[in-house]
Amino acid sequence: MNPLKHVAIIMDGNGRWGLKYENSRNAGHKAGLKTVEKIIKETIKNKIRFLTLFAFSTENWKRPKKEVDYLFNLLENFLINKIDNLHKQNIRLKILGSKKFSNKLNKLLDYSEKKTSKNTKLQINLALNYGSKLELIDAFKKIKRSHNKINEKNLEKYLQTKHIPDPDILIRTGNTRRLSNFLLWQIAYSEIFFEKKLWPAFTEKDFNKIIIEYKDIKRNFGNI
Ligand code: IPE
Ligand code: IPE
Ligand code: MG
Fold first, then answer.
1. SS3 216
2. Which residues, other chains included, contact 38 with Cβ-Cβ below 8 Å and sequence gap of 6+?
């Protein structure tokens, strides 16, 4: 049975779900947040140490302002209402990506990270304004400045995922088979699951099915 430390998820399909059931993409984002809460609970039940959630990419700024504003508002309210509760559950929140949001949200994110920084049960990495290419370019720039040798170990020291093991499982919901600039370096040996359901429709049962399937995969890492 494969050990399972880290699950990463591209939470895709909110917009389509919202349009289909409530004629509004934003309604889908709201419903998607409910799925986030369910999956956090299930991650804890499965004793998984790291959960990485792709919530907003460096490319998502192309979307209409109304949708972008709605998303960040949703996140702001979520943190205001839930950060104490996450802290009580011994959950650490870490942001991947660059914090270039409103002053209020930047502060709230810093506060949430700092408050929960010593927690050890589950680390949630929330990828916000995250793009893997940008992360890699920044890492190479930093290595160059440090005059260290360019090798895997040194590069990983400058990635935002430093101290985080690579994902064992990558899930993408929403019936789309692409990576959309997410953790390109870190998923070199992840087991990838493309899930047809849209994120708001994804359930604990779907999550557990993937975990069970993962446990029996023969992971070679180049060996036989
Ligand atoms: C959620 O899904 C991902 C985010 C960028 C918040 P989408 O909003 O991309 O939903 P679809 O793919 O348009 O259905
Ligand atoms: C990927 O979904 C980003 C997130 C889930 C946050 P997108 O919906 O932005 O991906 P593309 O644009 O369809 O590739
Ligand atoms: Mg999408």
1. coil
2. 203, 204
Rounded CA-CA distance 111/78 in Å is 14
Which one of 3.40.1180.10, 1.20.1540.10, 3.30.1300.10, 3.40.1060.10 gives the CATH number of domain 6-130+167-215? Answer: 3.40.1180.10
Query: Would you kindly state where each structural domain of the chain is located, as residue ranges?
Result: 6-130+167-215
User: Given this model, what pLDDT does residue 140 score?
Assistant: 97
* Catalytic residue, candidates 46, 60, 148, 154: 60
Q: What integer is the mean pLDDT of 64-74?
A: 98
Token reading at 32: 């998607």
Mean pLDDT of the region 54-75:
98
- Cα of 165 vs centre of ligand 3, distance in Å, is 26
Task: Give the distance (Å) from ligand 1 centre to CA of residue 16.
Answer: 7
- 83 Cβ below 6 A of ligand 2: no
Global pTM reads 0.98
